[in-house]
Amino acid sequence: MNYPKLANWLRFKKTNENEYIIKNDLLNKQHKLDSYTFWFARQLDGKTNPYKIDKTLKQKDVDLILARLRNKDIIRDNSFLCKSVFALLVTVWRPKVSIKTRLIAFILNTMLVITWFPTILFSAFNFFNSYSDINIDYLIIGGFIGVIVGLIFHELGHMIACLAYGGKVYELGIMLRCFLPGAYVLINEKNIKSTMKKIQINAAGVEMNFLLAGLFLFLSSKTYLLSGFFLGAAINNIFLGVLNLTFINGFDGVKILSEIFGIDDLVQRSKDVLSSSFRIKRLCHNGIIGKATLSFCCIVVVLQIALPFTILINIFEVILCFV
Amino acid sequence: MLCINKKSFLQLLFIFIPTYFSFVSVLNESVLYLVISVLSAFGIIAILPICRKRESLWMFLIVAICSLPINLYLISQLMFEIFDYVEFFIVKLSWYGLIYCMLLSCEELVFGILTNMIWRKQYKLKL
């Protein structure tokens, strides 16, 4: 039986003898708890029955404490991070971070950085040179499996890079958002100061997709029977990687661009600039730099509209082809 | 509203040098001019005073303008190879748009990261 457990993205700080401050890194919230409730919350590990923690407490009192903790998002009842019609996020793995884990992650991340580009280059070269005949029997199945593998490894890439650079990894899971399957990883990179390291954390997922695409492409050129299967997987991984590099809000491309320019919430800020005539005038009067900044905002916002629009049109076309 | 002083305007003209080379590379179908275009983009950013401490911003704008002829050429080649069977112009156009946006995003990121690696200390963009 599953009992409530303490959320793993919390930080605790003792302010005085009878008070603790709980910081929620995920929601950027802060709560105060008395020392008894804090002690009670610390006992909740998912295996302990909350009604047996302190036998002097009545059932009504325990329910009251649990309701308070739930209200402040300090505990969670099951492995669902989010459960609604359009979003279902299920926790699969909570990594226990140790020095050994970080060392392994560092080695894997270094290997990823070094190998992804030569792998895809060599595989593409090899594929086009030895291109003869492809068995397209399993192309669609290969593409489907390639997407699933790509999505999982994409998130693993982020997780490995984050662990390698000393960031926090809370959990890895699978999700169903707007009826589309996917994977997610909850990481916190705020303690990392280097811009290049942050860029690598955001780019690691895409690098992993390109590495997988390279491996699949290589396998496709080496086997005839499953050549279509591996080719489908490779194509979808390349598409997944490139799509993630686009400037659609929430995608890795925007996150990398935000790190390059050192701005949080780049897309929203660009939209805010263009929606305010006062800010546009102020930038125009700010000389050539102001005008360059304004042009930058225009490109970012235009891509925000153009990219999802063209993607939707193309999805619509593909559906029409099947109908 | 569009007042720019003479000095800045002259510097702004230099930004079109990489675009000129990229255009020539497409016309001649030469990789050499493409390399010159990329190198001139970095060179201009290193030299021009208006780009100082704002190298990423100017690189972003230069890439957006400079990549236009090359991207259009690449997409037209790709369309000829892969999407030749598509009859409808709107279908072709939508693919054109999608691939163009994807290429532009990738190029902006690659050049942005390279610029950030070369010029580490830059002013943060004020929005």
Short account of what is shown:
Helix content of chain A is 59%, strand content 16%. With 323 residues, chain A is α+β, with helices and mostly antiparallel strands.
Describe this structure in words.
- The complex is a heterodimer of chains A (323) and B (127).
- Chain A has 323 residues and is α+β, with helices and mostly antiparallel strands.
- Chain A contains ten helices and nine strands.
- Helix content of chain A is 59%, strand content 16%.
- In chain A, the strands form three sheets. A four-stranded antiparallel sheet of chain A has the order 6-7-8-9, with helices on one face. Chain A has a three-stranded antiparallel sheet with strand order 2-3-4. Chain A has a two-stranded antiparallel sheet with strand order 1-5.
- Chain B has 127 residues and is mainly alpha-helical.
- The interface between A and B is large, with 41 and 37 residues.
Mean model confidence by pLDDT of chain A: 88
Order of helices and strands of chain B: HHHHH
Order of adjacent strands in the largest pleated sheet of chain A: 6-7-8-9
Main sheet makeup of chain A: 4 strands, antiparallel
The tally of strands of chain B reads 0
* Biggest sheet overview of chain B: none
Question: How do the helices and strands line up, and which of them pair or pack?
Answer:
The complex is a heterodimer of chains A (323) and B (127).
Chain A: E1 5-6, E2 10-16, E3 19-24, E4 29-34, H1 35-43, H2 59-71, E5 75-76, E6 80-83, E7 87-93, H3 99-129, H4 139-164, E8 168-177, E9 180-188, H5 195-222, H6 227-244, H7 252-261, H8 266-275, H9 277-284, H10 287-322
Antiparallel strand pairs in A: 1-5, 2-3, 3-4, 6-7, 7-8, 8-9
Helix pairs in contact in A: 3-4, 3-5, 4-5, 4-6, 5-6, 5-7, 8-10, 9-10
Chain B: H1 6-14, H2 16-28, H3 31-47, H4 55-81, H5 89-118
